[in-house]
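pasting for the record
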Amino acid sequence: MATILSFPLLRHLRSDPNVHVLHYRRGKLVRSGRGLAFWFMPLSASLAEIPCDNRDQPFLFHSRSQDFQDVTAQGTITYRILKPEAMAPRIDFTIDAQTGVYLKTPLEQLSDLLTQLAQQLTWDYMTRTPLRELLSHGVDEIRSRIRTGLTTDAGLAGMGLEVVSVRVASVAPTAELEKALQAPTREAIQQESDEAVFQRRAMAVEKERAIAENELQNRIELARREEELISQRGSNRRQQAREVSEAAKIRAEAAADRRRMKAGARAESIRMVQKARVDADARRMDIYRDMPSQVMFGLAARELAGNLRRIDHLNLAGDSLAPLLTNLVQSGIRRLDGNGSHTDETPAAPATAEGGSPWDEDPGGEWAGPEAMPVDDEPDPS
């Protein structure tokens, strides 16, 4: 809006660069241009101010589609006045010479004109197009039709008006109809969601089944390995028992061999001792065979005396003592040679390394047997 300063008889106008000012005096155009600043006499001057910047004109159109459904188109038209001098005769942009405001409503008239033309173009398309096509391709088609229609309009071109751009924000049905149209898509999406949930559950069940089957296979494998382990342990134990039995058998056989060897050595020793005793007895019997009975009796008495530990009473009758003494004296005289040496002695038993005989008789006169002989028994290694 231009700024007007009042002085006595004169006034001064100063306009912005985006505003075109027309100064008429006595019906003739004396000044025309943007951003003018000049003095004028209010009684003879007429002023018009035409904006040259881009102006936005929003629109909201209600119509029906070919299938009789209510549809709303919403958008914005951007325009500018390209030829202010051509616009001034058609729409009144006169301003007050004192305040600088419009005396009428030229911008509203221009907006109504653009809106009506755009609405006519939009209705012409919407009434011939089904609802689904309007919703699918209506935005681009309406924008193209409005821009083409306003650009090619001869009246707007004659007014010096230029359409800069047309923007269609939306083409939408009523809320109930939109909800109804959204229902199939919503249901399809819900079905896809349910299908995805079912697939996820099926996959989860399948994975759980696979996990359970894997666990079962693991258990079967563990049971099989445990069976193999038990079988191997039993085999090891049987082998160990077999080895122990074989070792015990070998030890028993070795012990039996040692016992047989010891028994053979012992039996051989007994045979040698018995043979030596038998030989000694044979020699003794050969010696005793030629002896007189008196000598035998005396030897028996000596042996008896040697085995008696204690004699409490001894009775010798006179009839038996005299012949006995006579026989002893005679036997002793025959054993003595001329120089008084002893020639007929009883052979002594062979001496052993310890100074005694290889056989010993017990006090009762019987042989103690092989058990009385010491034997070095080795301990059984088992």
